[in-house]
Amino acid sequence: MEKTFQQDVPHKLGKAEAKRRMEDGLPKLLSMLPGGRADHRWEGDAMLMDYAALGQSASARMEVLEDRVLVTITLGGMLAAMGDKIAGMLGRGTRDMLEDKRRPR
User: What is the pLDDT of residue 16?
Assistant: First the structure.
C-alpha cells in the first residue's frame, strides 16, 4: 500500500537560490533518514529523491518555484503507516534549508 503526502514550503529566495540551498543542504536532509540507500537527481527545477531500506521504499519530488517548493512524498509498505511523521520531518528539513539565516541589520 502506498500513501502520498503533499506540502507547500514557502520561501522568499527566488528559484535559483532555493535550488542552490537545497543542493547544499541535501546531505543534512538525507542524514535524517535512518540507514538505507538514498539517491537524488534533478529534472529541470524538480529534485527527485528515492529511498530504500529494509525492503521499504519512499520517493519525493521537490519542485522549486519562485516563491515556494512543492513537496510530494510517496511512501510504500510499512513507511506509509509512519507517513505523517516522515512527511513532517522532510517538510521541516526543507524549510530549514530555505530559511533566511541572515541576521537583521
Answer: 94
DSSP 8-state code for residue 101: -
Residue 103's pLDDT is: 53
pTM of the predicted model, to two decimals? Answer: 0.80
Q: What is the topology classification, in CATH, of domain 2-98?
A: Alpha-D-Glucose-1,6-Bisphosphate; Chain A, domain 4 (3.30.530)
State the 10-residue block means of pLDDT for the chain, 105 residues long: 89 93 84 78 94 85 95 86 79 81 56
Please spell the DSSP secondary structure of 5-69, one letter per residue: EEEEEE-SS-HHHHHHHHHHHHHHHHHTS-SSEEEEEEETTEEEEEEEETTEEEEEEEEE-SSEE
Cell triple for 46: 524538480
Alpha-carbon separation of residue 15 from 10, 24, 47, 95 (angstroms): 11, 14, 13, 14
Residues pairing with 64 in the sheet: 69
